[in-house]
Amino acid sequence: MKHLISLHDLTQDEILEILTLALKLKKEQKEGVLHPVLRGKTLGMIFTKSSTRTRVSFEVGMSQLGGQALFLSANDIQLGRGETIYDTAKVLSRYLDGIMIRTFDHNDVLDLAKYGSIPIINGLTDLLHPCQVLADLQTVWEHKGKLQGLKMAFLGDGNNVAHSLLYGCAKVGMDITIGSPKGYTCNEEIVAGAKEDAKESGAVITITEDPVEAIKDADVVYTDTWCSMGQEKEKAERVKIFGAYQVNSRLFAHAKEDAIFMHCLPAYRGFEMTEDIIDGAHSVVFDEAENRLHAQKAVMALLMK
Ligand code: CP
Ligand code: NVA
User: What are the tens digits of pLDDT across the range 50-76?
Assistant: First the structure.
């Protein structure tokens, strides 16, 4: 593993190695055991989109690993004024030990990895959000004691988070059903790639427009905003289209009785889910947010040591 750009690039063993280390680092951190394995190392964090969890968890994670993180807003570095990804990758590779980037175009992340000589971590693109899904898998593992053989249901927009969930579940052998309205389902190439991965793990991948079929007997119910960063102008239209996919008590009743509710956050109560669901007894959204820290520390420790 040289970079973390897509979970599709990792083997099942590599994903399980990250999760196992994440659980160990979490336990150590809670017990006050220090683990400064990246002492003297620096992570650059390029952001061309907003963030609360990703920014804070990477920065805190790096500091807990004994290194430091540099916040590089695209508005403030020359990339935002037209310096090329090629030059940026070459220059930053001379200073840093790793780069985490959150941006729009997935190709920019691939180019950073291609032209740079240090590990690149994808902190979200329009296409994928692999760090989120590592934390999600860790959370499912903690709450359900296993990954293989469970069913996850993702309701709503077939977006970056849905894409990474497809890959993540397919790799670890968790069945996943995506329930999205026509025209808003997942990218066909990603679905095909996940189906390839699923052949090895035995996971079942299902894409449907029927929200009830999607959520039926699910162990894990997941949703995300109907309007991702960059789609703000489509909000009014999307709210009309996605109504039937709202995770509310009526829809949630079709999941297993002990199903957990997950959301990558930020969440918009009254839209993709109702308040009683996200703030209710089945919700594990804050464990999930916390696990961003532990899962990413594992990724950085493995890539940057
Ligand atoms: N889930 C997630 O990536 O949150 P932020 O946008 O706050 O980083
Ligand atoms: N799908 C959302 C995820 C935010 C963490 C977005 O891209 O805005």
Answer: 999 999 999 999 999 999 999 999 989
